[in-house]
UniProtKB/TrEMBL annotation:
Residues 89-240 form the PCI domain. The lineage of its organism: Eukaryota, Metazoa, Ecdysozoa, Arthropoda, Hexapoda. It comes from Baracus vittatus. Keywords: Proteasome. GO terms for cellular component: proteasome regulatory particle, lid subcomplex. This is Probable 26S proteasome non-ATPase regulatory subunit 3-like. InterPro entries: CSN3 (IPR050756), PCI_dom (IPR000717), TPR_PSMD3_N (IPR057985). GO terms for biological process: ubiquitin-dependent protein catabolic process.
Amino acid sequence: QNRRTLDLIASKCYFYHSRVFELTNKLDLIRGLLHARLRTSTLRNDFEGQAVLINCLLRNYLHYSLYDQADKLVSKSVFPENASNNEWARFLYYLGRIKAARLEYSDAHKHLVQALRKAPQTAAVGFRQTVQKLAIVVELLLGDIPERAIFRQAQLRKALAPYFQLTQAVRLGNLQRFGEVLENFGPQFRTDHTFTLILRLRQNVIKTAIRSIGLSYSRISPKDIARKLGLDSAEDAEFI
């Protein structure tokens, strides 16, 4: 019992130690220590320590956009089944980010939905906002439109407002509106770690716009399509 208590205390120390290095922008300096502690925790069957350290390392890699290293860590480690729900929620969120960056959108969406289910429903509002933002973008990349009810939740409404406007632009295939959303909320999307993924949505917006044009015209040239959509050339329209 005493050892279990010490393991829990140690796991909290790992988390806050890593957090201090993150706040001072020195996360890369602690990576070796985290790996060493993870090996020790694994040998001692310290499940909570393993969970916290894996999550700290994943956060470390993702902070520097080292997605390949993060994916390698996931493949070479086993996340403990009996870890707390909070640690599972974090792990599933990081897994969702990794899969989304690697274009594996179906898996990414599945992990993000699981993260939302594991997260506390009455607390951790900031975490749920973060996960939901990414889930919305991934759902759009899958070609689906998120339910309007998601944006109406009291605790999420304000945080998701830019993503509601993004969803509207994608749903309508409005390339001009999409550009305005990027211009107005680009800094916020970068802070949310969704900007790169949102840029990929441009193709989806154009495809939706072309489908709408196809329904309105029995015959139209690629040059006219490019002019209507504000594309650089007719070749761009033909390619899409």
